[in-house]
Amino acid sequence: MTVTTKTIGGLFYWKGQQKHIRQFIRECNVCQRNKHENIASPGLLQPLPIPSAPFIDINMDFIEGLPKSERKDVILVVVDRFIKYAHCIALSHPYSASGVAKIFMSNVYKLHGLPASIINDRDLVFLSRFWKELFTSQGVNLNYSSAYHLQTDGQTEIVNKCIEQYLRCMMGECPNQWVKWLPLAE
To answer: What confidence score (pLDDT) does residue 10 get?
Structure first.
């Protein structure tokens, strides 16, 4: 039984309720245009060890391909693996490793300190010599995810999908205002 059916069932009841709710969701115009389809990934997942405290182990990724909004078109997403909290920071292309490091320091480091490890994809920014030297010199273990292996950065990918979906649903007809809604998505 879905969450929607349980929620509605707690308030109302009518004959054929589950069938009607499923049909309504299937035909919902906003949902059909904006939500992604959930498909199980092939193979067995090997989860990473659970961190011992918040913001000790984090994942980082970019959401790209967004329409320009207040001269921004990229979101840097930083997800804590312990409490699943995400920081979303709007950026503009082109961005550099040093620019992303400064933004990381002023938005994440100032609140939580330096993590023990960072997992990110193989984006050129994260593979740059500057990025590696900066965090390695501070004692941060940098780990890179493999393509199509959600066991390493699946949390970040799920957060990215949720943020994109939220922004699409909220912005609808005016997608160039997503920067205003980003704090609420976070």
So the answer is: 86
Q: Is 58 exposed, middle or buried (0-12, 13-18, 19+ CB in 10 A)?
A: buried
The reported pLDDT for the residue numbered 153 is 64
What is residue 92's three-state secondary structure?
coil
Instruction: Compute CA distances 173 → 71, 118, 161, 176, 180, whole Å.
Output: 19, 36, 19, 9, 15
Residues near 63 by Cβ (< 8 Å), separated by ≥ 6? 74, 75, 77, 160, 163, 164
For residue 79, what are the β-bridge partners?
A: 59, 86
| Distance separating alpha carbons of residues 118 and 159, to the nearest angstrom | 16
Separation in Å, CA 58 to CA 89, 162, 165: 15, 18, 22
- Distance (Å, whole) CA 154 – CA 43: 14
Q: How many CB atoms lie within 10 A of CB 182?
A: 17
Q: Give bridge partners of residue 63 from the DSSP assignment.
A: 75
Which two tokens mark 71? 């001269």
What pLDDT, in 10s, does the model give residues 168-178?
888 878 888 89
